[in-house]
Design brief:
The protein has 85 residues and is α+β, with helices and mostly antiparallel strands. Helices cover 29% and strands 11% of the residues. The longest helix has 13 residues. The N terminus is likely disordered.
Length: 85
């Protein structure tokens, strides 16, 4: 099974729009993930320039806050997101 983007292109295209609706069914989503579970993934990561503390400082800016809180969210659909500033 190949995931397609909103424009019908394969998911490995450089266009990053992804058709999430195509994977909405539990069985379809499981079928999409099945071949990915069989891959022996290799993670390439360089030693951080600033050491472990620099990595934690960077990640902590993003892991404990919400980018757009629910009360600011007005609408969200396949064309965009609208929120109060």
């Amino acid at each position: 099974m190949e995931a397609c983007l909103g424009n019908g292109s394969p998911a490995h295209s450089h266009d990053h729009r992804f058709d999430h609706a195509a994977l909405a069914g539990r069985a379809i989503f499981a079928a999409f993930l099945a071949p990915l579970r069989k891959v022996e993934w290799v993670v390439y990561a360089k030693k951080p320039f600033g050491g472990p503390q620099a990595v934690l400082a960077y990640l902590s800016r993003y892991t404990h806050r919400v980018a757009i809180s629910n009360r600011r969210l007005i609408s969200a659909d396949e064309t965009g997101v609208t929120f109060r500033w």
